[in-house]
Amino acid sequence: MKAFTLPDLGEGLAESEIIEWHVNIGDVVTIDQVILTVETAKATVDVPAPYSGTIVSRHGQAGDIINIGSLLVEIDEQVTATSESNTASLNTTTLKTMPQVTASQSVSNAEVQSTSSKNNKNDAATVVGNVSQQSHNINIDEFWIGSDNHSNESNTDKPLITALPSARVLAQKMGINLANIQGSGPDGVILDGDVYQACDKQRPGTEMLKGARRSMAASMAKAHQQIAAVTITEEAILSRWSTNEDITTRLVQAIVAACQHEPALNAWFDPDTMTRCVHDRVNIGIAVDSQYGLYVPVLRHADEFNASGIRKWVDDTVAGIKARKIGREQLQHGTITLSNFGAIAGIYATPVVSPPQVAIVGAGRIIKKIRLNQDASIQQTNIQQATEVDVLPLSMTFDHRACTGGEAARFMKALVNHLEG
């Protein structure tokens, strides 16, 4: 019997959310067969089986948050006939050549074999393939419920609670009694996810942030602490736009043009080394709202896409997010971000810059405004005609540590000029 625990999925990520199990108890699996899909840091990862064999137990349900080292499955490993034959032959040879031993030595050997068997049973495997090969050991915190001043007789009547140290701290913060929780870990160990589930039952309406929402909470807190944010606003008059204009495509093309005109906003900033990296390629992160939370997939080399290519990329990416089939690599290496929040509601906003980027462009809802134009047909030059026009509100937040106000204003002007052209 082999135990398989959640391995390190990379980038120092300590926890994952179970999205879907692909195997059931009793199923026979082969090495590298995908057994479950997890999500971490807004990306989904398929976890393969490290052994061939039969699934004896499965731990955790879809939606559970699990930490590195948490037990996932136990597999009754298959042994081939050739291996059994070789083992039997080896045992026969060993018996023939083994010298006589004393009774005490036999007992010692038996103890060693028993210890080895026990260690093999608790062996924690890691994923093979494209993820980390590191093993992780979780220290289990065992303690008695009740006062240490009770006699030994009274303590024997108390239930023994086995829980991860992090689960105990979490339970104390949430006011959860561990004695009322049935652990889902190996041998009934209480995990963090068990505490969260108990909290959901105790406080209706309370939910644990998972997946994209959990990652968003961490990244927004980081941005609030690190960025010297300043927001500049402007309006683009869309009198030259056609009726069925693709707003997202036009915004992407306008950002590319503005980055080429004023590259200072298409950059990364490292406050620790006080260095700025201005990029010649434009990788635009496009904020996508979904029922699972906010995702920001990156359109790499956006300067090389035409209008139809941009639209196809957006459609394919949104479909992947809805199906929760988006990889971590699709969310990396953005150099500037676009948030088209006006597609839902809102005119102006203060978008949040995601470090190490230094700028984010927000587009609000298109509104109607009255514009005064000089009427060339009228002789008197002081007479103007009022016309109704569509206006696109724009808001751009930039990190004032890395960009000057002049650079931001020039970028915004180039953005507006391209949209109005």
Automatic annotation (TrEMBL):
Q: Which family does it belong to?
A: Belongs to the 2-oxoacid dehydrogenase family.
Q: Which PROSITE patterns match?
A: BIOTINYL_LIPOYL (PS50968), LIPOYL (PS00189), PSBD (PS51826)
**Which EC number applies?**
2.3.1.-
Q: Which organism is it from?
A: Photobacterium jeanii
The cross-references to InterPro entries, in alphabetical order and at most eight, read: 2-oxoA_DH_lipoyl-BS (IPR003016), 2-oxoacid_DH_actylTfrase (IPR001078), 2-oxoacid_DH_E2_comp (IPR050743), Biotin_lipoyl (IPR000089), CAT-like_dom_sf (IPR023213), E3-bd_dom_sf (IPR036625), PSBD (IPR004167), Single_hybrid_motif (IPR011053)
Q: What is this protein called?
A: Dihydrolipoamide acetyltransferase component of pyruvate dehydrogenase complex
Q: Which UniProt keywords apply?
A: Acyltransferase, Lipoyl, Transferase
Instruction: Kindly list the cofactors needed.
Output: (R)-lipoate
Q: In this entry, which stretches build a coiled coil? A: none
Record-annotated membrane-spanning stretches: none
